[in-house]
């Protein structure tokens, strides 16, 4: 079951319709796209993920995105 309609959404887990939640990203005021490419949603058409199952492909891609965005480890204290 999905939750409340999201306002001002930019990035994160959301559901477009009852069913699987996807990881969506939106640049500007346009359409939000899921990482897996299976879902697109215009502003106002995304809901909180609630207790929806997460898309397996989005889970994998979101983990890779988070790993690549983490700060690099410092080398030798320089």
Helix content estimate: 10-25%
Which spans of ≥5 residues are poorly predicted at pLDDT below 50? none
N-to-C CA distance: 50 Å
| E-strand count | 5
Mean pLDDT: 85
Order of strands in the sheet with the most strands?
A: 4-3-2-1-5
Beta-strand portion reads 15-25%
Structural class: alpha+beta
What does this entry look like structurally?
The protein has 78 residues and is of the alpha+beta class. The protein contains one helix and five strands; from the N terminus they run βββββα. The protein has a five-stranded antiparallel beta sheet, with helices on one face. A hairpin with a 5-residue loop joins strand 3 and strand 4. The longest helix is centred in the C-terminal third of the chain and has 14 residues. It is globular.
Summarize the structure.
The chain is α+β, with helices and mostly antiparallel strands.
Give the helix/strand layout:
Blueprint: E1 11-15, E2 22-25, E3 32-34, E4 40-41, E5 47-48, H1 56-69
Antiparallel strand pairs: 1-2, 1-5, 2-3, 3-4
Salient structural properties:
alpha+beta; 5 strands; 78 residues; 18% helix
């Amino acid at each position: 079951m999905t939750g409340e309609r999201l306002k001002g959404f930019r990035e994160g887990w959301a559901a477009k319709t009852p069913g699987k939640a996807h990881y969506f990203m939106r640049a500007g005021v346009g359409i939000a796209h899921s990482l897996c490419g299976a879902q697109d949603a215009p502003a106002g058409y995304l809901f909180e993920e609630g207790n929806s199952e997460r898309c397996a492909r989005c889970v994998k891609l979101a983990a890779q995105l988070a790993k690549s965005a983490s700060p690099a480890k410092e080398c030798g204290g320089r």
